[in-house]
Fold:
Amino acid sequence: MSFSDLLDDIGGQGRFQFINTILLIIPGIIMASHPLLQNFSAAVPDHHCQTADNTLPGSSWNFTSSDVLLKAYIPVDEGTKLSKCLQFSKPQWHLTFENGSFFNISETQKIPCQHGWSYDRTEFSETIVTEWNLVCDLRHLRQMSQSIYMGGVLFGALIFGSLSDKFGRRTILTWSYLQVGVVGTCTSFSPSFEIFCILRFLTGMAVSGAVLNAVSDVEWVPIRSRTIFGTLYAFSFSIGQMVLAGVAYTIRDWRKLQLAVSCPMLLCFMYSWWLPESARWLTLKNKPDQALRQIKKVARINGLANKGKLVTLEVLKRHMQKEVESSKVIYTIYDLFRTPMMRRITLCLMTLWCCNSFAFYGLIMDLQKFGVSVFLVQLIFAAIDFPVKLFASASLMYLGRRRTLGGCMLLAGIMIISNAFISYDMKALRTSLAVLGKGLFGAAFTGVYIFTGELYPTVLRQTGMGFGSTLARVGSMTAPLIRMFEDHLPSLPGIIYGAVPIIAAFVVIFLPETLNMPLPETIDDVELETNDTLSVLGETEQEEVG
Structure:
């Protein structure tokens, strides 16, 4: 007898679960913009050195008849392309003549830009790159700002994962919505790059807290429906990525774009007070009266008020007896490693979270490298999630968690590592492989998210989710920095992004299958059920080999 049995009695797949999921999907759509926002707010337009004389074609980017005059001030690299970071120490007027290219130009005549840069503003009116000149010697600050955001997500996972177990899922979720709305709005008024990075760090913290505590929805969903509801929530991020492409196409100024994706979170904060607190958590925190009110509320919304009246404190305590006894012990991150099976599960999930996030963000955080419209690539990257995640959802329900998760990561890694050896001129093929790889990484995220919630017991579920998300953020923090290796070997980042998930895919072999299994409530349940499951899996695999 468990809480899942009680949930079936009051309607585990009714109107309440539908409304609750929708109310969690809406902020998920909005928050999906923040991790990918710098594809647009930090886009790097074509640029060259600003000329000393503002009457010359350095300030307006007028490359018509003025293009000839620019050759006297700006060196030409790679055929006919103007240098991005160098200018002549003195005007070279002979280069404006038709046969000027035959003159020998000494490298000593070329110096770094002295008067700033001129940017092509046809695609973006203003980005943080153009506003704070994050190009040439400062170009790596662009990647660093994204790593700082991911550092905030990492810190948020560490902080909010533990706080939610102490203060409740809904309290932290509501606070996170407020923080995303307020801090995100303030970011659009950043007076300097340093303030921008600090506010992005705080936004990342809040996004992490919101995503982690939205998993409390799973505690109101029966075993047979967990995959469906988990996948629906995952789709909110895909929809959000598509919305971001449209909003960024409409709003080309980074400050206005930042404002557009932050203010709506204040509306989510206002209605988040309706969301129920986890009845499991309330019972474990010695608040059975509040838990009982939540259960009766769910039953009433599901049209089963009469069955809700049959649930008394005695009935609730009987269904939660094992969890209540286990909650008398104080649990920490140390408990994730204390017993053999918990240690195995944690180490495997650490690898899966970190490696999948590393490859995922390494792939999607530089859309300009594909050579086509960044808005179109963003839209396609988001759209691919729907067919791939639907396939993954069916696979999770019929083939199980292990095979689906391992297969998605393996295939995605192969596609990305193949892309590293394809010529940049083959834009369609490179983009197609990247799109499929991104879809599979997204499906793997859905799998590992559901898998983690099912492997950890109730008393450690939020701590485990927070710890797993922490490792994911370590991967996402590292991913932008790998791009710096492009200066030495252009294909090296792609090789690394593809090899890491291929290696990690084989880690799922050491995890038990959780398809149609009840959620473990205590560490003892994990040790017992996991050993039994692995024994059955081992016998099945031996029979298949035989």
About this structure: DSSP finds 26 helices and six strands in the chain. The two ends are 38 Å apart (CA to CA).
